[in-house]
Amino acid sequence: MPPPRIAVSLETSRTKAFASAPDWPGWSRAGKDEHLALEALAASAARYRAVADEAGVAFDQAPLFEVVETVQGGTGTEFGVPSVITELDRRPLSAVDADRGARLVEAAWSVFDRVAAASPADLRKGPRGGGRDRDKVIGHVIEADHAYAREIGVRLLPPSLDDRAAVDAERGAMLDVLRRPSDGSPLADRRWTARYAARRIAWHALDHAWEMEDRTD
Description:
Structural class: alpha+beta
């Protein structure tokens, strides 16, 4: 019996596209066009399984995709961020599904932390000498998570790189929000829905975790 099809949304722009599996927060990959983005999504299935395993969620790493929505991206897409809130992101969220999504977000953070701990301080540079080193990547993710926290109504003082208790407290508050059932409306009277928040937060952590893996000699 073939595995169930996984719903995928495509976000396309002039120079870049993202393929995202919105029911699997964080599983979103980019390519120069939608076909290459879908190929990248499929190629990252084995990597994403580590997230699902961490969260205790069954995952088939040989999935069948079904593109159910294609949206026009913008400058954020071209910059390299899955930034469009789709109709799939506006679906209601039951308590069970919200808890599942929050566990996957928490697992994405755990994978990021584990990769960061195993990475050297100096990461291999790109072909033109670009790219942040490990501590800069960690700091960037912490800063981004603080901005994401405000998008979903969490307002705490920004944690510093060396204040693990503050990082964990902010993550915990964010997970408390993501565990709540939702009717699909924006959170905190802003713009992000619960489903979009989960996939954006987890994507950012995983994107940089996998970057550190790829840039480790």
